[in-house]
Design a protein that fits this description.
Elements lengths: L1 H10 L9 H17 L27 E4 L5 E3 L2 E3 L4 H10 L5 E6 L5 H13 L4 E4 L9
Length: 141
Amino acid sequence: MRFARKRQYFDSKLVAEINVTPLVDVVLVLLIIFMVTAPMLSMGIDVNLPRVKSKTIDVNEEKLVLSINKDGEIFINRTKIPKNELKVKLENIFTARIDKEIFLRADKSVAYGFVVEVMSEIRKAGVDKLGMVTETPEESR
């Protein structure tokens, strides 16, 4: 009798379907959470960037960003650095990094000569790649 029950169990068809409704619900909730929190994650110094057409930068890994605000203050990511200490600070940072790349964000009201001086200090620190961060121009309609 025991054997008969086992045989009956194997003869019935098993339903191997996955209910995707809970999966879709979870994915939509996560999407909404990321859409709400993503604008809050943008960090930086208040800089009024010039608008030009250019290709976008892929930012999969953490990049080093040097910012110059309208008052001429220099920041590495969010840390304020005096101009005379910039070269030494960058040399210290890039001793531990393989990729010697930095992005420069400068307010459009900052004097061009000051930006060039900062770029010179960056080059003296041994940086291989220097990227300029801009905003895309607004289309006039």
